[in-house]
Amino acid sequence: MKTVRFIRAMGVLNLHTHALSEYKLTPKELGIPDTVFHNPMTLIPLKVINEWYRRIEQLSGDPDLVLNLLRDVDILKLGPVGRWLFSGNDLASAIRRVNYGVSNLQSGAFFAGAQSGNILKWTYHNPFIDADIKVHESVRSAVFMVKILREFLGKDYKPLRVKLSGSRQNNELYKAYFGCDVEWNQPKTEVWLQSHDRLATRQVLYREERRLAMSFSDLDDLLNMPDPEDELKVIYEVVNYSRHYGLPTLERVSHILGLSEQQFQRRLQKLGLNFSTISGYVLSNVAVEWLNKGVAISDVATRLGYTNVTSFNRMFKKHRGVTPKQFLLRAEN
Asked: What's the predicted TM-score (pTM) here?
């Protein structure tokens, strides 16, 4: 269970959306429901992302899908987190924010910069991505890094070198996009640039310092990344993710956690819980959030996968001590 990691929906939203459109695929074929992307801060288990990458490549037949789908994406359209990344006025601040903030966007991953002489090597690594699809994640992160550089240094900016994990046959495609030599089969993703390129004097456009543009709610979501050592939090978020497929099931949650159903049940027993209890706790929390936003009780029940309101009311009262209607009446007083 300590190997379970997450990525926020915003990290793969553009890739997912363009894959559906470009390759005429459906969310069901890719294995991730549309509702997952209604909130860009939704936590998606990396196990799901590993399977999702495989499905896109298999169904599209395009080994270069990540570059082909992301090359024209506008990096500024990343919602609250994107506004945070670019609310500073220079490239150096953007690099620092990526390096420091990635742990809240993708657990298990890290960005870091290391200087060697006059060269700055900007590195990305995530050991929890499966080896057979690591190339896709490597290309995604390299494109992201280069887009940041081009946002500050000009759309024609070319890094000194790009190093990618895995391999692809059409190397010329990647050299043409990055504008430099590309090395494959590397343990980590690296983008090399002249160290002085990060200085404000190298920028092609001066940016005025802007307000953070992130609400307290956005900030709460951003900081809500489970610590791998917090077993209960990891289980909670996996159950919370699984509800997008309907009512959470022991089979689905166990699969995502990489455990057999029996192993997972034993883990819960050691924590003094059972699957029904933790599922009800998660669903009642989600229900409260929606009720507070004015979603009708019947709609909340449907969204959570209940076939009738009576079953939903029973679950809610068990975990909240009041019915949904009583909860709303108390909130009004």
From this structure: 0.91
